[in-house]
Amino acid sequence: MNVGLFDRILRAVVGAGLIWAALTKSLVPGLFASQAMVWTGVSVGAILLLTAAVSFCPMYRLVGCSTRR
What we know:
This protein is an all-alpha fold and 69 residues long.
């Protein structure tokens, strides 16, 4: 486990917001115009939600970072 509480909350909020924005196409007009961008937004949002849920970020491990105290 290498993701701290504040980091988990931030990841959950940003992940959920990104999924919502991609599915409703409401963040920036034209940003999610293509289906590929919608899937990219949903995928990144899902990864953020998953890393928040399990308190582990593989990228943090690769760079030797941890926000957990």
